[in-house]
Amino acid sequence: MSIVTIQLGQCGNQIGHEVFNAICGDVHGTHGLCSKKENESYHDACKERFFREEESEVPVARAVLVDMEPKVISQTLSTAARSGYWKYDGRSHFCQKQGSGNNWANGYSVHGPKHKEVIMDLVQREAEKCDRLGGFFTIMSMAGGTGSGLGAFVTQCLRDAFPSSFILNHVIWPYGTGEVIVQNYNSVLTLSHLYQSSDALLVHENDVIHKICAQLMNIKQISFRDVNQVIAHQLGSVFQPTYTAEGGLHYSRNPLGDLMEMLVPHPEFKMLGLRNIPQMPENFLAYSTFSWPGLIKHLRQMLIANAKMEEGIDWQVRPPCLGSSIPSSHSTNKPLHFNTSVANLVILRGKDTHSVDLGSFRDPSLYTSWLNPQDAFNAWKTPRSFNKYEKSAALVSNSQFLLKPLDSVVGKAWNMFASKAYIHQYTKFGIQEEDFLDSFTALEQVISSYSNL
């Protein structure tokens, strides 16, 4: 099944380009110990998901590019075409001469309704070019105006136009130190609206990716491109083909549907996080060896201690003892700092994946009590290595990983709202104080649900 990617705003378009680049680089890269037949089926499954063929024989990304300013889109189109490996459809984009000025209300209430017909026509056209549509993958920022405001509006339109299709929103969480003064307002409005229309939100935090670039990738002067390439690598490690059944002979045909089935058992819990291991500069790979037991041990501890990368993991955090009567935080049996999960998916790529013991991820104490651990944990595997890593693992987790940042964003936005700061910038575009209050209420409910896992 095919995925139509919708790149929204500057952030969405730049990341989207890097995602297609990473996928193409993986398909054309080294193949590990795979047979020719296996490589061909991997190649075909990847192509069906993300690209379509045209007469030129250069694969065309199944994507719609949207921004209110033309500069980033024209750069994105030309950079992709120059690669020679893939390109965008020159007619599948929409831009205007004026941006949203970092104002969510401008993107949502003005640009959205005004350009709805043109944007949705482009989406419809792209969807009709799929033999079988598996759903939509939107890429957007949460802090600005176009990506967040227009992105929330477009997601709502997708839900209305394609009620039975899966929608996964990839959302970039802003730097904690602040990019724009109203980013917390924009974030609260974006998340609360996406929570209504999307099937799941896959979140990357800018601060975390920046840390990975500095500490794991050893980059001295970190650019947006460096950050976007790390994000694209992580996304590719999830979306490239895998076997979803033990000893499977066919690559999964419905990646978005499979992800939702494994990770979103209840509509109250839609926040997905992503961790990758190992992650290092390419020139280090030749001198590094990895064992599956070591990688799995680190990945599990990253999960339970809520470490976003493999450096600086708190090894003191332990799962709670089920049935223990020792009081601790929140008067439950849960130790402080322990990250409880709703569901987890581990994706293994590379040699000897069939022999990897994942029993430690099936431990009932890792999960909320209302789900059977057998249902809460799943594993996908492929013997084909990914982006030059002989062995690599990705963890997609629906857990409490975002509680602290979410609580912080809502708290900061509420403090500004209580003093009526900058509200007039939103009301002049039709967003009323009641809309803010509805958004705060919706997110307080999300915080409460995840806190009580």
Describe this structure in words.
The chain starts with a strand and ends with a helix. The protein is built from 15 helices and 12 strands. With 453 residues, it is an alpha/beta fold. The chain folds into 3 domains: 2-272, Rossmann fold (3-Layer(aba) Sandwich); 282-320 and 338-400, 60s Ribosomal Protein L30, Chain: A (2-Layer Sandwich); 404-452, no CATH class. The strands form 2 sheets. A 10-stranded mixed β-sheet has the order 5-4-1-6-7-8-9-12-10-11, sandwiched between helices. A two-stranded antiparallel ribbon has the order 2-3. Mean pLDDT is 90; it is low at 324-332. α1 crosses α8.
Strand order of the largest sheet: 5-4-1-6-7-8-9-12-10-11
> Could you give a short account of the major beta sheet?
10 strands, mixed
The N- and C-terminal alpha carbons lie at a distance of 34 Å
Q: What gross morphology would you assign?
A: globular
CATH topology of the largest domain: the name is: Rossmann fold
- Structurally, how many domains make up the residues? 3
Q: How many helix segments?
A: 15
Structural class: alpha/beta
